[in-house]
Amino acid sequence: MTTLLGHNYIGGQRSANGTLQLQSLDATSGEPLPGSFFQATEAEVDAAANAAAAAYPIYRNLSAEKRALFLDAIADEIDALGDDFVATVCRET
Question: How does pLDDT run across 69-82, given as a tens digit for each residue?
């Protein structure tokens, strides 16, 4: 089974500064799933927005071909995590 850490991912780094943890739930049944997630703090939300704003000009200037290659690389990384990961994400999304 996939082990989810429950951290936020901000600017390429894991972050879990919040004290409130939210239980992961099966989206179809509402049943609890293993694991919980840290609620982002206001500072983490600001950091995520700032990281996105800083990254956008670089992404915006990429050609359509390079954007496609980038998105394909992301898909490959997700696929490499395996079927168990995909099934877990589908259950809790």
Answer: 999 999 999 999 89
In which domain, by residue range, is 71 found? 8-92
Residue in 48, 21, 46, 49 with CA at minimum distance from that of residue 35:
21
φ and ψ of 21, to 5 deg:
-110, 135
Q: Are 38 and 20 in contact (CB under 8 A)?
A: yes
Torsion of CA 88, 37, 14, 1, to 10 degrees: -30
Percent of the chain at pLDDT exceeding 90: 63
Q: Into how many domains does the chain fold?
A: 1
